[in-house]
Design a protein that fits this description.
Blueprint lengths: L1 E3 L4 E2 L2 E2 L4 H15 L5 E3 L1 H17 L6 H20 L5 E2 L4 E8 L2 E8 L16 H5 L1 E2 L7 H10 L21 H5 L8 E5 L12 H5 L10 E6 L22 E7 L4 E6 L7 E8 L3 E3 L11 E7 L7 E8 L2 E11 L6 E6 L2 E7 L2
Parallel strand pairs: 1-4, 5-8, 9-12
Antiparallel strand pairs: 2-3, 6-7, 7-19, 9-10, 11-12, 13-17, 14-19, 15-16, 15-18, 16-17, 18-19
Length: 356
């Protein structure tokens, strides 16, 4: 079953998604395997649940992850419902992750496990799924390595054997993000301020202080240029700053959407680029395994990541009324609000939350 989630020129939004080519290839595969082929247009749901959310988050100065939202709201919601209506029992996808059923309190529970290919593990993108969604999911290539999958496709003579991996925004394609966002978010010139390497950051003792984003004023550094809108930039961003003449690359270390100021620092080791903790608010936390949830006042050791393909980091979860604090054994570069933090017990993804 093929879902179209994006029209190349729907309304005022333009992307670069080669969905027509993908559709043709999918039809060829179905014909070769002699299986039924279904088509469904879910572009309205995708626009409402993913694209509108993405613009709203960028407008607030946050950095959303549309791929995680697409899996939660479209692939395993609207698409899953359409498949079940056709009489399907499961939805199988090409995600590099694994599912395992275990008994929990007399009922089955489903574990989401990392893919066997360490270079392609995509469990992070499914970090917001529920038990009900997992119960209907199949991941038939999660135990394989990517080269093995391509080899098998070649052996079967499938036209997808040499197809390039998709890039860019899920179902929208590869885009110039600032240009794409300016289709709905207005450009607004503001100050680009460089913070010195020896800037003194205030001490952070409590969980609240450790998890809070850094706040600066233009007087803390020097003005080195202008930008087109603070809401177009994200923490840790390196490209698109339009400033040269530095020995080491510049990175965005903080943004102030209200004052429309972007703060940058030179070098990977700039002190303002890293933090040791973050907060995932209670209303934006999801546990894949309800039997492993935490109560206020509890803490738990875990492994965690704040972006896809980041190596898992040693961390500790602190459950409070306001949400889950995640503290890391080593400071993390580029913690960005709006992104997802996912925490693991060994190779099992247990829960996740939106970074505040």
């Amino acid at each position: 079953m093929f879902m179209q989630n994006w029209h190349d020129a729907t309304g005022t939004l333009r992307g670069n998604c080669p969905w027509k080519d993908d559709l043709t290839v999918a039809q060829l595969v179905a014909r070769q395997l002699d299986i039924p082929f279904h088509f469904i247009d879910l572009s309205a749901a995708y626009r409402q649940k993913v694209v509108d959310y993405m613009f709203a988050e960028y407008g607030r100065g946050r950095t959303p992850n549309p791929d995680v939202l697409c899996n939660r709201e479209v692939k395993f919601d609207a698409f899953l419902s359409a498949c079940l209506a056709l009489g399907a029992d499961y939805v199988g996808t090409g995600h590099y992750c694994r599912k395992e059923a275990i008994a929990s309190g007399g009922a089955p529970a489903y574990r989401l496990l990392a893919g066997s290919d360490p270079n392609k593990d995509q469990s992070y993108f499914l970090c917001q799924l529920s038990q009900q969604q997992l119960s209907r999911a199949l991941f038939p290539i999660g135990h394989m390595l990517k080269p093995e999958v391509r080899k098998l496709a070649r052996q079967l003579g499938l036209p997808t054997a040499t197809k390039k991996d998709s890039q860019g925004i899920c179902f929208v394609g590869k885009v110039d993000l600032p240009v794409f966002l300016q289709q709905k978010l207005k450009a607004k010139k503001g100050l680009l301020v460089e913070l010195p390497k020896d800037i003194r950051l205030p001490p952070r003792r409590t969980l609240e202080e450790q998890a809070a984003p850094y706040r600066f004023a233009p007087s803390d550094g020097k003005i080195i240029g202008e930008h087109s809108g603070a809401h177009f930039y994200t923490i840790g961003q390196r490209r698109g700053l339009g400033v040269g003449g530095h020995v080491e690359p510049l990175f965005v270390v903080a943004t102030d959407v209200e004052s429309n100021v972007v703060y940058v620092g030179e070098g990977h080791g700039h002190p303002a680029l890293s933090r040791s903790a973050l907060l995932a608010p209670a209303g934006e936390v999801r546990w894949l395994r309800p039997d492993l949830t935490m109560q206020a006042g509890e803490q738990r050791r875990c492994l965690a990541r704040i972006r896809y393909r980041q190596p898992l980091q040693e961390a500790t979860l602190f459950c409070r009324q306001e949400g889950i604090y995640v503290t890391f054994a080593a400071p993390q570069r580029g913690i960005a609000s709006g992104q997802f933090v996912a925490w693991y017990s060994g190779e099992e993804l247990v829960g996740s939350g939106v970074i505040a």
